Amino acid sequence: MTNTSTRRSPLERFLSLFADVQPGEGRATILLTLAVFLLLTSYYIIKPVREALILAGGGAAVKSYASAGQALLLLITVPAYARLAGRLPRRRLLATVTLFFTVCLVIFYLLARFAVPLGVAFYLWVGVFNVTVIAQFWSLANDLYTPEAGKRVFAILGFGASAGAVFGAWITGRLIEPLGIYQLLLLSAVLLVVSLVLSLAGEQRRPAEVRTAPGVLKDLTTSLEERGAFDLVRASRYLQLLALLSLLTNLVNTTGEYLLGELVTQSAREFAMAGGAADETAIKAAMGPWIGSFYANFFSIVNLVGLLLQLFAVSRLVKYVGVPICLLILPLIALGGYSLLLLWPALTMVRWAKTAENATDYSLQNTVRNMLWLPTSRQEKYKAKQLVDTFCVRLGDVLSAVAVFVGTTWLAAGVSGFAAFNLVLVGLWLIVAVAIGRRFTQLTGNAE
């Protein structure tokens, strides 16, 4: 994709302060960065709403079980998306899927106006939205950039994602009380539409090398009809490792989220009762805003740290230590965090352990995880990636729900018990990360 025969534009010179943007890449990169910024802003507006509805209505255990339900739902949505991807060109696929989720937000808002209980249903929907729409954006980015270019500019796209997450959580924390929970759904819908417009504009301004490269102009209706997503994963050792990586990462993360949610719910109930709430209805009504505000502040700090990492560390780490080493950083952080939880099983410790884990996940790990798909085929990018980023991720939720059920029902495990469980999983995660790093180096043909 590099074109050294022309000079960088002023925009490209500015972007080059953060990553090695080459001539011809600037316009597409900035449009896609703005698109993912608004996409993550939209998501982080509805994410605290999701937490408030599910935790106040059912508690941390119900949230864990609802996460498992997402995996069952994805058994339907993943094949449906694959069929849609096999029939529609890239631009129509982006528009159709994004507008579908936009309409869903409006429907949820209308249902809320009629006092329809939304906790579990909305939680399930947000899980599908997250792994479908966001994974679709990264499929587009992987399709538009070569492996060489992606390793250079994905840090900028990742910065846009991190900045959107920071802004979304920040604005939610300030609007949730004056506007109320449900009005935020309409704001999220508007931002989603604007993100789609920018994504389509970025796709149109993709670098000339991508437009003319052999095989790249192939329409999705022909390029995606050959094999199913599960067949692609079964046929590739590399894709199997990526699937296992997604499963283990989310299993550790979701179990950690259960610990945080359980302690937050306990604190919210204590707050409500201290404020004079006596009956269960009044207690839950007081818990909702407290939980929403807690998570808005929590996400703000997580995403701010992630943003700083994305801006100042990610591109340099990828450049100087390489993708294989970067893959090991998050599991090592998780190893340290859950080790500390064995000694100090309190809300403060869980909060800051999850802050470090999530901030690294949303910045460095997210960028590197998407880079791992650069050396794959178009079929693998649009079909297998959706499978790995949806079904395999949510399968981790199922296993976490099983662990929560067994741990709380049969073993009476507390925070320390679940922390020990996660430590075992982190050991497996490190082994898989090493194997993927070696295979990635072979596929990309450079010794990192």
Detail the topology: elements first, then pairings:
Elements (H helix, E strand, L loop, with lengths): L9 H6 L10 H32 L2 H28 L2 H24 L5 H26 L2 H33 L3 H22 L3 H5 L7 H4 L5 H7 L1 H38 L5 H41 L2 H21 L3 H25 L6 H32 L5 H30 L4
Helix pairs in contact: 2-5, 2-6, 2-7, 2-12, 3-5, 3-11, 3-15, 4-5, 4-7, 5-15, 6-12, 6-14, 10-11, 10-15, 11-12, 11-14, 11-15, 11-16, 12-14, 13-14, 13-16
Describe the protein in words.
The chain has 448 residues and is mainly alpha-helical. The protein has a single domain, classed as Growth Hormone, Chain: A (Up-down Bundle), CATH 1.20.1250.20. The protein has helices at 10-15, 26-57, 60-87, 90-113, 119-144, 147-179, 183-204, 208-212, 220-223, 229-235, 237-274, 280-320, 323-343, 347-371, 378-409, 415-444. Helix 3 packs across helix 5 (119-144). The two termini are 20 Å apart. The model is unreliable at 1-5 and 208-226 (pLDDT under 50).
What is the strand tally?
0
**Fraction of residues in H or I helices:** over 70%
CATH topology call: Growth Hormone, Chain: A
Number of helices: 16
Query: What is the rounded distance between the termini?
Result: 20 Å
Specify the CATH architecture: Up-down Bundle
Biggest β-sheet strands, sense, barrel: none
* Level-1 CATH class name: Mainly Alpha
Encode the helix/strand succession as letters.
HHHHHHHHHHHHHHHH
CATH superfamily heading: MFS general substrate transporter like domains
Please state the overall shape, judged from the principal axes of the Cα atoms: globular
Structural class: mainly alpha
Number of domains: 1
Radius of gyration: 21 Å
Low-confidence stretches: 1-5, 208-226
